[in-house]
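Chapter review: from sequence to fold.
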Amino acid sequence: VNSGRITLSFVDAIGTAIANVNGGSDAYLKASLPTGVFAPAGGLVVNVSRSGGSTAVGPTNYTGLVSSITIPAGQNTTSTKAFTAQNAGVIGGSTILTLSGLASTGYTLGPNPTITINDNSGSIPSNSVITISAGSVQAGSPIPLRASLPTGITTASKLSIVVTPSPAFPANYTVDGVMV
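The token string follows.
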């Protein structure tokens, strides 16, 4: 009986192991048996699903999640597209996807594969436009400023914005208590 431990791992399109994938890119799942162990007639099926410990959720962070991978009969390894990472509109954001699996009788699974999905929304120039708007202005009163990102775009961490008046700013006004 050909039995053994099945190792699942995430790889790129050419089979190189990866720990991270950017939104808009594909990740692949590789299933391998130990050296000298081959899948039986009919192949070796491993059913996979999102583990409860994952922070990534479909379809917000990924689409097209694979549900099984089959090592063909007489083969030792195979890979297939696992999912397409998505940009969720969170600049600097990332989530974790872990897969759990169930192997055929006589086979065991190694550790659950885990990958970080990086939200690539910040690399899209239109997502990084900060709009600054002012409320109504009364002489001698502070001017409330509101900074915002495009609709649907947020940040994973606090965003600091420094406002510096231009040289054309009218005289006799103060910014943070300093006369300009």
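Two observations follow directly from the output. The radius of gyration is 25 Å. The chain has no helices and 16 strands.
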